[in-house]
Amino acid sequence: MKLNEAVSFSKLNINKSITTPLDLQGFSQYKAPLVGIEVEVENVAQVGNLRPAHSWRVENDGSLRNGGVEYISHPTEPKDVESIITYLYDDIIPKEAHFSPRTSVHVHMNCRNLTFKQIYNIVLTYQCFEDLLYDFAGSERKKSIFCVPVGNTNYYLHLKEHLDQADCPPWHKYTGLNLGPLREYGTIEFRHLRGTRNKQTIYTWLHYLYTMYNFAINIDTAELEKLIKDVSFNHNFFDLGYKVFGNRFLELVRNSVYQKKMREDLAISKLFMAETQLKGWQ
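and the corresponding structure tokens:
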């Protein structure tokens, strides 16, 4: 069953404002998903003076200081993502704005048309690389109470059972990978990335998320579970990383002792797989 068959959603107003998309970063290679991006910034004037012409809206954010705001994009197709980020950073965010350690960048990825098994596949794939993704996003983010690693929770206990029953699992908002928005918006949220003025950092992060998402939704669940079990047994960690991220895995593991981190994360992934006697999961 697909998520949009179990939950009713309002119609998406997809961003159609980009007439000549930029494609220097190659995001047009991805056919899915729609994304929504939230960029937190401090030291900004009052919202009433900031009215983006297209693609974004802006709101005050009480969790930030010194005139903190959050820029929130409209749902956008991959081919237009580079254009809206360029517009935000080059034309909207004031030069005096500050990306303090309190700020972060959140990415919502559309799951409305996915089956519950595909959503499970995303969580399972993500868990294999959680530590490495935090390394890139900012090691300090792993200690943030607003971005708790899934591996530090006990969500593995009942995730498969909930999804087997076509039910959105209960989930705390302040986790790095947040499944809470599934029921309201039909999205999963990645809260990891530190606030940054560097557009290339955001582009690289989005490539990681797009490749991981598309790998997960295009592999059979039984095949994915077997792959994780085999990698755990054979310690063929690089092989799994390359299957998921391609050449970008080389960037992700740069300056990282990735084998140890992946060994620990795969052990948690196998906890998510433990509930095997469920209808339709064999």
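(Above: one complete record from the training split.) The longest helix spans residues 199-217.
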